[in-house]
UniProtKB/TrEMBL annotation:
Residues 194-532 form the Glycosyl hydrolase family 13 catalytic domain. It is an enzyme of class 2 (transferase). Belongs to the glycosyl hydrolase 13 family. GlgE subfamily. The gene is glgE. Its EC number is 2.4.99.16. Keywords: Carbohydrate metabolism, Glycosyltransferase, Transferase. This is Alpha-1,4-glucan:maltose-1-phosphate maltosyltransferase. The active site is at D380 (nucleophile), E409 (proton donor). InterPro entries: GH (IPR017853), GH13_cat_dom (IPR006047), GlgE (IPR026585), GLGE_C (IPR049171), GlgE_dom_N/S (IPR021828), Glyco_hydro_b (IPR013780), Ig-like_fold (IPR013783). It holds the Pfam family GLGE_C. It catalyses: alpha-maltose 1-phosphate + [(1->4)-alpha-D-glucosyl](n) = [(1->4)-alpha-D-glucosyl](n+2) + phosphate.
Length: 651
């Protein structure tokens, strides 16, 4: 019986997820009647369906008959794995004979066992292609049959290391059974690991001689790229760069009436100047965008573009395809609502009236931007569109462009967030922003680890929509804490510009909206001045991204484990990279007010350590080396850092 196989997403309806080079654990419950020994393996096949070398499985838990192996796909695309199990007569024979010898069963009583062993060895000799191995096996079989030898000498060759080596190379198999094949979609490594930086190109124009903000362009935005690259970011995420509607345009701070110079919300897409396949003329043209993408790539980063499937009232689609929207009883087109909130500057799409026409157009738009160098799409509010639409679009795109990634911005109910991840989204925004206590973080990140076969978290510390209360009230130290948590808990994390400047003024008490939100106005920032004055988190962000690149363990989600700490204000967790033996232990102060000292009690089994073992670890933040054991005292002084990071290699 082969049962309870993992990874298996929704009973196999959707493929599990992995990236190239990721070590993917495969588990199954395997059992048979009686006491005969079993063996099992995982056979992994690439997209050509050509099997790779089978990986032996190990019995991970005798009590539950749970078997385990690790497979490592080495190229992108759709892979399949199946589990093969069989009765292992050689191990059964060795186990039985060894047990009987241990209680002094004599040769006459073992006669049948000895002949059974000789017959098994004969079978192996007949299958062997090596003359030396055949001779070795035949001598062992002859010894088992030689009644003139003492019992200990008769069994010695058969139970010896040389025979075990030869048999292990091609062990006999009986009653072989296989599971059904199961799929794993393998992405490029950026799908799992990356540091994102979000900024508005239109805010990069600086100020004129009168102190007024000047609309930025792709050319002025390029000037920010060196700073972003120096901080160690991998992905430059741009909010919508398309023409912005003028009908019902919102003013500053979401005012219902815009002043003549108000720039409007980038998410109110479309005007007489074009729609989703056009560039806002004040940013430049498509040639300027192409130059921007080229510069991003030169700096070893890549562009992520917002895909927001909604329209301003003056979007060309409204005029040419009114059937793609919802018409109200009075004949007007319905604008977006989330009662009591209303969004008169946005028309939601209706996917029911002309699904094929609308699908074809959106596929065309996505392909247009792919052809202009975009390989990552951050999808706005995907939970408000039909799931079958996303499933069809994502997998059709991947058929031609398997390297394209989709991030779901779905701050919604868990079933929907998980469902979108299962049906094809590469990454997902999460509830990390609202998980602030030690218990909340531990429980939620453990849940994310358990979901690693289908959901890859992207932990953004802030967004243009979300300024959490802990940042509003916690001051600069809390910004450092949230950055440390996001950057080390998840392989992928993100920062919205202004975070490094500690921007934390809410629109009103109790609101998560920013005062003077960049969604509705230009926000030029003086990053270099703040850095000179020591009023910037940029050095800490740079250090966190350095650590992420230096330590393969921090690129891993599946191995995240939490450890006990005697101070409830401290949280401790570790990650391990099985391939390199890289281990990282992080201890973060969730309430950095004054120095703290506490005992960290390591889960030694999770780290592959014996209970009494000590390791010499590099102290990545304070410098030098430290000795860590099962119980270690750790001190954190917020004047130096809000976190400690210790790293070592096991081999």
């Amino acid at each position: 019986m082969i049962d309870d196989i993992s990874p298996l997403v929704s009973g196999g309806r959707y493929p599990a997820k992995a990236v190239v080079g990721e070590q993917v654990p495969v588990h199954a419950t395997i059992w048979r009647e009686g006491h005969e020994a079993l063996a099992a393996e995982v056979e992994l096949a690439d997209r050509s369906r050509a099997p790779r070398s089978a990986v032996p499985m190990e019995l991970a838990d005798v009590g539950t008959d749970r078997w385990r192996a690790v497979v490592t796909p080495d190229e992108p695309g759709m892979w399949e794995f199946r589990i093969r199990a069989w009765s292992d007569p050689w191990t059964s024979w060795r186990t039985s004979v060894t047990a009987k010898l241990a209680v002094s069963v004599d040769a006459p009583a073992l006669a049948n066992d000895l002949e059974s062993g000789a017959l098994l060895i004969d079978r192996q000799a007949d299958r062997s292609s090596s003359r030396d191995d055949r001779d070795l096996l035949r001598r062992a079989a002859a010894a088992l049959r030689d009644t003139n030898l003492p019992l200990s000498e008769r069994v010695k060759p058969a139970l010896g290391a040389e025979v075990a080596r030869v048999v292990a190379a091609a062990p006999p198999r009986e009653l072989v059974v296989s599971s059904n094949p199961h799929r794993i979609w393998v992405d490029r490594p950026r799908a799992l690991f990356g540091s994102w930086y979000e900024f508005f190109p239109r805010s990069t124009g600086g100020r004129d001689e009168h102190g007024r903000a000047v609309h930025g362009t792709f050319a002025t935005a390029e000037r920010e790229l060196g700073r972003i690259a120096d901080m160690g970011f991998d992905v430059v995420y741009l909010p919508p760069i398309h023409p912005i509607g003028t009908v019902n345009r919102k003013g500053r701070n979401n005012a219902l009436t815009a002043e003549p110079n108000d720039v409007g919300s980038p998410w109110a897409i479309g005007s007489s100047e074009g729609g989703h396949d056009a560039v806002h003329p004040e940013l430049g043209d498509i040639t300027d965008f192409d130059a921007f993408v080229t510069e991003v790539r030169r700096l070893d980063m890549e562009v992520a573009l917002d895909l927001a499937l909604q329209c301003a009232p003056d979007h060309p689609w409204v005029r040419h395809h009114p059937e793609w929207f919802t018409t109200r009883p009075d004949g007007s087109i319905a604008f977006a609502e989330n009662p009591p909130k209303t969004y008169e500057d946005i028309y939601p799409l209706n996917f029911d009236n002309d699904p094929e026409g609308l699908y074809a157009e959106i596929l065309r738009v996505v392909t247009f931007w792919i052809e202009h160098g975009v390989r990552i799409f951050r999808v706005d509010n995907p939970h408000t569109k039909p799931p079958d639409f996303w499933h069809r679009l994502i997998w059709q795109v991947k058929e031609t462009y398997p390297e394209v990634l989709f991030l779901a911005e779905a701050f919604t109910r868990p079933a929907i967030l998980n469902g979108l991840a299962k049906l094809g989204f590469t990454q997902s925004y999460t509830y990390f922003t609202w998980r602030t206590t030690k218990r909340e973080l531990t429980e939620y990140l453990t849940e994310l680890v358990d979901s690693a076969d289908w959901l890859r978290p992207n932990l953004f510390v802030n967004t243009p929509d979300i300024l959490h209360r802990v940042l509003q009230e916690g001051g600069p130290h809390m910004f450092a804490v949230r950055a440390a948590l996001a950057a080390t808990l998840s392989p992928t994390w993100g920062v919205y510009s202004g975070f490094e400047l500690f921007e934390r003024q809410p629109l009103r008490p109790g609101s998560e909206e920013y005062l003077d939100s960049e969604k509705y106005e230009l926000r030029p920032r003086d990053y270099s001045g703040a850095l000179r004055r020591g009023e910037s988190l940029q050095p800490w962000i740079t250090e966190l991204n350095r650590l992420r690149r230096a330590h393969p363990a921090l690129r891993n989600l599946r191995t995240l484990r939490f450890h006990d700490v005697t101070d409830e204000a401290l949280i401790a967790y570790s990650k391990t990279d099985p391939g390199t033996g890289d281990h990282v232990l992080c201890v973060v102060d969730l309430a950095p007010i004054s120095p703290r000292e506490a005992e960290v009690r390591l889960d030694t089994a999770a780290l592959g350590l014996d209970d009494g073992a000590q390791v010499t670890a590099l102290d990545e933040i304070y410098g030098g080396v430290v000795e860590l054991s099962a119980t270690s005292t750790v001190t954190i002084d917020p004047k130096r850092s809000v976190a400690r990071v210790f790293a070592w290699r096991s081999h």
